[in-house]
Amino acid sequence: MTTLEKIQQANPSLTIHSVFDDTFALYGQVITLPHQDELNQNLTTLTTIPATQNQYVRDAPTLLAEVKKAAIAREFYGEQPIEIGYCNGNSDHLNAFEWHNCSELNLAATDMILFLAHRRDLNGTTITTDRAQAFFVPQGTAIEVYPTTLHFAPCRVWQAGFKCLVILTERTNTPLAS
What we know:
Shape: globular
Helix content: 10-25%
Low-confidence stretches: none
Strand content: 25-35%
Number of helices: 3
Structural class: alpha+beta
Order of helices and strands: HEEHEHEEEEEEEE
Strand order of the largest sheet: 2-8-5-11-4-3
Number of strands: 11
Distance between the termini: 50 Å
Radius of gyration: 16 Å
């Protein structure tokens, strides 16, 4: 039995797709990042999963040298400056959505689940969870989440938690002005 089949069996009331299913094309695409193996190794060895909750680090310069970072900026963001950070944690449910005016690139250093929806499904600033779809992202898989996609922190598959690389245009996730 595959990991996805085990997750589906443990959650019979929830439809969980794979990012390799055609359905994912509405929200993003599976990609290959420049220096993906190095990023995966660094995320695995240089970051930890907090004991509780999630930890988001917007930019972690130790994950990739600047000269290598430029290859990702060129290929996915037209040479705009980027930030490479991570979200590691223990969330096991959907509790929020966000979106950006740029694509978000993710690399799953562990198996994880993402809940995704479309910005067009917002009713003002709210959305009901029945508009969301769950997607399994296997360990080692990189994805692009389109700017039109609502998303938030991944959910863990295993009790040990999750590790997820997050790449965005520089200063995307800085605090908003008051």
